Amino acid sequence: MREPLMFVVTLDTEPDNEWARPSSPATENVHFVPRFHELCRKYGLKVTYLLTIEMAENPFLGEFLRPRLAAGECEVGAHLHPWNTPPLETVTDDDFRYHPYPFEYPEDVQLRKLETLVAAIERNYGVRPVSYKAGRWGLDAVHARLLERLGFLVDTSVCPGVNWGPSKGHPGRSGGPNYNSAPTLPYRLAFDDVCRPGTLGLWEVSPTIVFYSALGRCIPGVKALYSRYRKVRRAFDRWHLGAQWLRPYPYMTAERLARVAELANKAGAPVLNLTFHSSELMPGGSPYNPTPESIEDLYRRLDGFFVWLAGRGVEGVTLTEARNRIAAAHASRGDGKGA
To answer: What is the pLDDT of residues 155-177, one digit of tens each?
Structure first.
């Protein structure tokens, strides 16, 4: 008998409008987090707040989240923006402009930046974070091994079927990671390749991404063409029929969010992972919700989607709770991929 479907909210809790590449990050969006938290709590959902260094040290957010964390309403994890996190050892002539991927920094610098972020969360929240997302989704095998070394249990950086290669960090290097071959279901990361299952203690619970069009799901080769050829991708994406995230973009109605969740469930996903940014909760905090009206529309769509989830008995859990249940299920089956 299949276990109840789990539902995770992973919120990249980061400065305002990082898309604009500010050199002095602001954190006004912390004041818009309580409304979202209360909406999730209304439906029995738990938020996993993945904190950058600025947000880990923000006093308003700490005062709001600490009692909610103690009450089991949420989880506090880590989200490394390496261009903002000490030690500020640069790899370009302007890291604030280019936003290099974490793996574009020397390994020892990556480690020290992670240690700085972990220490800030421990100092301000009294817990050691065990859940993680890399800035700009930038995970590679070296970075994954550093996470395991620091005691992290679950990552949510790998985006199945997505190639970030064209999206540059360091202008002189090869761009972002290619996750085209990554599994869609949760798995333990391999020592040398984040796109295949292995034996690290670090589990990957990816954001929920499905191919929306039945053509891509049912006809062999369509997904490969979509991944390989920009014209094919543009043709599907023009009508939002290609790779669709469980993410509340402005075009994602409650019905479309429910459809993505339904498709993921049919594909055997044990957990749904809704992801977006804290800055999207503030008017002008992101390119997606520039006005107060767009924020109200966001909440209407989220509320409609959460009503749909509640009607299907979906259980709200944190990212680490989902990881632990999945690991235990693997261990009980004796497949060698448990915790």
So the answer is: 999 999 899 999 999 999 999 99
